[in-house]
């Protein structure tokens, strides 16, 4: 194994641009693009910087690929598709399993990279590696179960069947908040189905994607099957448009903001390209009077403060039945005060990290200050924590929320709990559904009749019932309304990457 402490003391080794100022003793660090099984730089020699949001330090310079570079990667992936798609499902399954095993072997070093570039506490980063890798494992098993159908023919002289075939090259555009899991959840399914991939990771977190490629290379996944094309914000729009419009791309799969998702949707329309979108959430979290309050508080904390609230399924609107409103607010506030910390050395407490960048910090603070100016009550938090670090924001609880506040209407994507009272079940459902989003929703109740009623009436793609953490490889992940199209994970995740072909055998 390479000694990366020694390696990072050098200025240059082969075509890897190395950073002497930030030693990283990790076994999977790569900071070059990965195309056709090679570690390459931008054809123009351009780089962009990756920063640690916890301390603001530059941790790497990464190649800034442009349209010409990505066009070449698409051509390479298209060529690799010809052989990869013809491999038996069993062979693809075995290679995915090897990838899973290598990621498992290097999980701690990958978690260090992920933690450094995303700001997640190490324990949380390690949890993401394990969660994300579960999709590689899952789809390694699903690769052998992509079955067709024998149909009942209406006449005796014909036999009818359906077969499933991979759609071609898959373009993956992934976000910064889960830089590993959002790749493995997509790429695992794509590879299992027989597709090859061109992956554009978020500019804030490209190193995790490159570490995954290091693992794929070690696992023996053939050159050209997986390609990572990092770029900065200046190149992102043109690269995204290329991926949508290039005829060699069979499917686009994107996780990110609703605004960008709509733009990609439009750009795909010209070629009627298949697209899978996982977009904004704005999830409701409903606590009914029959709820187990201890479990409701625990579920709220886990769901809200994971990744400092920067998750698409994070609860955004806390709707609490009036008779238990004060009890819930007081319990959540007390829990935050006693059990949540920024300090990585504090034992027995939940550690939260920084927000990803200055733009995110400004957005969160604007939302909170808007609520305060319009009459919201701050029970705890309500401001940034510059004494800890530039991008840290205090866990916040707000009440006296009104419909004219930004926090009532928009996804917060930060460590802010905004609580609103309701008086009956119908009111709670009406408020929960009063948004264009519909990704996840949560509610706590011990009334079995109510559980079935609310589960069916709430307009979301996923429902957590007395549970705050719902994501798992075995279940279909996705939303309704403007929260996206398609499903990831589960056996349904394969469907985004295959076409159904009907075969009619006549003259029998």
The first-to-last residue Cα distance is: 61 Å
Percentage of β-strand residues: 15-25%
Runs with pLDDT <50, length 5+? 1-23
Taking Cα atoms only, what radius of gyration do you get, to the nearest Å? 24 Å
Helix fraction bin: 25-40%
Structural class by SSE content: alpha/beta
Q: How many individual helices?
A: 15
Spatially, the strands of the biggest sheet line up as 18-19-20-15-14-21-22
How many β-strand runs?
24
Shape: globular
Report the biggest beta sheet as strand number plus sense, adding barrel if it closes. Answer: 7 strands, mixed
Mean pLDDT over the residues? 93
Would you write up a description of this structure?
- The chain has 508 residues and is of the alpha/beta class.
- It is 37% helix and 21% strand.
- The chain is built from 15 helices and 24 strands.
- Strands 18-19-20-15-14-21-22 form a 7-stranded mixed β-sheet, sandwiched between helices.
- Strand 1 and strand 2 (16-17) form a beta hairpin.
- Helix 3 (89-105) runs antiparallel to helix 5 and helix 3 crosses helix 7.
- The radius of gyration is 24 Å and the shape is globular.
- 52% of the residues are buried.
- The model is unreliable at 1-23 (pLDDT under 50).
């Amino acid at each position: 194994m390479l000694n990366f402490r020694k390696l990072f003391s050098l200025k240059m080794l082969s075509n890897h641009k190395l950073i002497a100022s930030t030693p990283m003793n990790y076994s999977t660090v790569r900071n070059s693009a990965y195309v056709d099984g090679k570690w390459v730089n931008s054809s123009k020699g351009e780089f962009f910087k990756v920063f640690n949001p916890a301390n603001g330090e530059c941790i790497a310079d990464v190649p800034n690929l442009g349209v010409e570079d990505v066009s070449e990667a698409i051509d390479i992936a298209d060529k690799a598709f010809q052989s990869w798609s013809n491999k038996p499902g069993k062979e693809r399954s075995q290679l995915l399993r090897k990838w899973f095993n290598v990621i498992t072997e290097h999980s701690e070093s990958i978690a260090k990279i992920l933690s450094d570039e995303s700001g997640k506490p190490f324990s949380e980063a390690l949890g993401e590696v394990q969660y994300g890798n579960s999709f590689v494992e899952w789809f390694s098993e699903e690769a052998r179960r992509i079955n067709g159908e024998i149909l009942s023919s209406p006449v005796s002289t014909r036999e009818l069947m359906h077969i499933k075939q991979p759609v071609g090259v898959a373009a993956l555009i992934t976000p910064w908040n889960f830089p590993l899991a959002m790749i493995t959840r997509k790429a695992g399914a794509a590879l299992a189905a027989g597709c090859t991939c061109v992956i554009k990771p978020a500019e804030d977190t490209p190193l995790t994607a490159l570490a995954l490629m290091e693992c794929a290379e070690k696992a023996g996944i053939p050159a050209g099957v997986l390609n990572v094309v990092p770029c900065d914000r200046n190149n992102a729009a043109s690269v995204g448009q290329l991926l949508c419009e290039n005829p060699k791309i069979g499917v686009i799969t994107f996780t990110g903001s609703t605004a960008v998702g709509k733009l990609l949707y439009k750009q795909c329309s010209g070629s009627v390209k298949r697209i899978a979108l996982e977009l904004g959430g704005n999830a409701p979290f409903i606590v009914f009077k029959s709820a187990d309050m201890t479990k409701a508080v625990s579920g709220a904390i886990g769901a809200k403060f994971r990744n400092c609230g920067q998750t698409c399924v994070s609860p955004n609107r806390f709707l609490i039945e009036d008779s238990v409103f004060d009890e819930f607010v007081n319990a959540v506030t007390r829990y935050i005060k006693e059990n949540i910390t920024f300090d990585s050395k504090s034992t027995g407490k939940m550690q939260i990290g920084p927000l990803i960048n200055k733009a995110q910090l400004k957005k969160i603070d604007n939302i909170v200050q808007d609520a305060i100016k319009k009459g919201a009550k701050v029970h705890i938090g309500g401001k940034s924590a510059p004494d800890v670090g530039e991008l840290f924001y205090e866990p916040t609880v707000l009440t006296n929320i009104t419909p004219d506040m930004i926090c009532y209407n928009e996804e917060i994507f930060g460590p802010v709990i905004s609580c609103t009272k309701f008086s009956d079940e119908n009111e709670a459902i009406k408020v929960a559904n009063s948004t264009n989003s519909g990704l996840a929703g949560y509610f706590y109740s011990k009334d079995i009749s109510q559980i079935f009623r609310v589960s069916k009436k709430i307009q979301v793609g996923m429902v957590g019932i007395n549970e705050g953490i719902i994501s798992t490889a075995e279940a279909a992940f996705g939303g309704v309304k403007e929260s996206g199209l398609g499903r990831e994970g589960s056996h349904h995740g394969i469907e985004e990457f295959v076409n159904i072909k009907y075969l009619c055998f006549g003259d029998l």
